[in-house]
């Protein structure tokens, strides 16, 4: 139960703008780096195919900290946590502008992610607590739309900045937006807290965090030809997950209740999300890299080529619910996952003389398949949850999304290095075949994951 706060008309009008700005910053930052990685590699003296650590550091940190966001907001209040999250995000961005080595940049991204991990969950929580349920759809639609704009702008803006300025401007642009948002949060945001706080499952948090960190780093270590380290880390991940299961079965209020997995739709949605996103989650990282390293396109062209992928996906929104009602989740998810995997495999057919419009057409089809997949998986995962299960279920789904994206980037980065003994030198003959092998591998994994969705009932 939350202490009742009546918003004055001015605050009620401006608060969604504040949360929307945070969503915009988060999604822009999540996509703007992908196009810039090859030029950043040149400046830092690194191989372009080893730059995925910059993305993974952010994704791991966010996945680990999301489960603590609700408890922190309850403990310290929404205004204090949201304001601190924005300031921490800005401080991390400032550190990124000064980084002169890959390790320094990765460390700075961890600091940035500590703020980013709290902004979006606490923003959603604030909206849930500050507005009546009758206004919830309207307000949430408003605050999430800038996130789509950030996702749309990110690759192109990143390409333009590295081509006509410097990659450091990618992080500089966060500072004025973030500082303005922090000031507005301090002035406008109510400091909502529940009347009764639940006890935080610290042991569960540490065990689940150990699982998240170990499994992503285990896959990433393959890019360093370290099979022993990979085996040790994956063993730690499985051990941590086993210990968490034992712990969650014995405590009254675990971080994520095991009872959630007794719901077939939730269990299938979570496992399907982890597996099927290995292909789609790697596309924003892999494709701009291939366009530049493999095909020799400029960063701006590589960035703009990603726009149709997002636009085509957004254009399918009005039709998705009708398709699901007509055919059901089982048919839609299993067939769409097969199509998604086949389209990713088709990326392997791209050669030095492939017309740009054909690449854009293929990316548009992938965008449609991705949007159908994400929408259907999101709804089928949550559809059976009751009010008591909703908080833990939505939190675990957010963590799974970050975890699956981190695994996708780790897998793509590891495969790029494993298939390429020459470290991905720009313009190297044959480097395009390395990307082809990676696309085929990730597409095959996506196709195999379609079997998971056959566990759903035929009539749902």
UniProtKB/TrEMBL annotation:
Coiled coil: none
Record localization: Cell membrane
Membrane topology: Multi-pass membrane protein
Transmembrane segments: 12-33, 53-73, 80-100, 106-127, 139-161, 167-188, 200-220, 226-246, 253-275, 295-315, 327-350, 356-383, 395-418, 438-456
Residue ranges annotated for the Major facilitator superfamily (MFS) profile domain, each copy included: 15-460
Keyword Cell membrane included in the entry's annotation: yes
Signal sequence interval, chain numbering: none
Keywords (A to Z) from UniProt: Cell membrane, Membrane, Transmembrane, Transmembrane helix, Transport
Keyword Membrane: yes
InterPro entries per the UniProt record, alphabetical: MFS, MFS_dom, MFS_trans_sf
Broad class of where this protein is predominantly found: membrane
NCBIfam families, per database record: PRK10504.1 (NF007799)
The protein's name: Methyl viologen resistance protein SmvA
């Amino acid at each position: 139960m939350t202490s009742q706060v009546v918003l004055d008309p001015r605050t009620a009008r401006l608060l969604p703008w504040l949360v929307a700005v945070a969503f915009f910053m988060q999604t822009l930052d999540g996509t703007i780096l992908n196009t810039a990685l090859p030029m950043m590699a040149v400046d830092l003296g690194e191989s372009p195919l080893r730059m995925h650590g910059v993305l993974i550091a952010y994704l791991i940190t966010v996945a680990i900290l999301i489960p603590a966001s609700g408890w922190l907001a309850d403990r310290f209040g929404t205004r204090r946590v949201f304001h601190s999250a924005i300031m921490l995000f800005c401080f991390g961005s400032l550190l990124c502008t000064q980084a002169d080595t890959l390790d320094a940049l990765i460390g700075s991204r961890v600091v940035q992610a500590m703020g980013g991990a709290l902004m979006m969950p606490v923003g959603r929580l604030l909206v849930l607590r500050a507005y009546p349920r009758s206004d919830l759809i309207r307000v949430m639609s408003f605050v999430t739309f800038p996130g789509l704009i950030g996702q749309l702008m990110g690759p192109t803006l990143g390409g333009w900045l590295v081509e006509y300025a410097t990659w450091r401007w990618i992080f500089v642009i966060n500072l004025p937006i973030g500082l303005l948002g922090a000031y507005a949060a301090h002035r406008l945001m109510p400091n909502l807290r529940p009347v009764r706080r639940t006890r935080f499952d610290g042991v569960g948090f540490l065990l689940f965090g150990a699982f998240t960190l170990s499994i992503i780093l285990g896959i990433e270590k393959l890019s360093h030809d370290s099979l022993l380290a990979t085996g040790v880390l994956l063993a730690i991940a499985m051990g941590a997950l086993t210990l968490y299961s034992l712990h969650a079965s014995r405590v009254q209020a675990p971080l994520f209740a095991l009872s959630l997995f007794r719901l077939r739709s939730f269990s299938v949605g979570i496992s399907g999300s982890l597996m099927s996103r290995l292909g789609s989650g790697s596309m924003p990282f892999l494709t701009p890299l291939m366009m530049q390293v493999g095909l020799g396109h400029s960063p701006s062209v590589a960035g703009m080529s990603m726009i149709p992928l997002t636009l085509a996906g957004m254009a399918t929104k009005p039709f998705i619910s009708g398709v699901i009602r007509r055919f059901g989740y089982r048919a839609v998810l299993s067939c769409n996952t097969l199509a998604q995997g086949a389209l990713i495999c088709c990326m392997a057919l791209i050669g030095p003389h492939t017309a740009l419009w054909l690449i854009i057409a293929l990316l548009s089809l992938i965008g449609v398949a991705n949007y159908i997949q994400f929408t259907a998986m999101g709804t089928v995962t949550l559809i059976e949850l009751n009010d008591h299960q909703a908080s833990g279920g939505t939190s675990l789904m957010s963590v799974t999304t970050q975890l699956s994206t981190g695994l996708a980037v780790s897998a793509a980065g590891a495969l790029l290095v494993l298939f390429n003994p020459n470290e991905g030198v720009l313009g190297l003959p044959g480097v395009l075949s390395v990307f082809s092998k990676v696309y085929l591998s990730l597409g095959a994994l996506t196709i195999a994951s379609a079997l998971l969705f056959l566990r759903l009932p035929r009539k749902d």
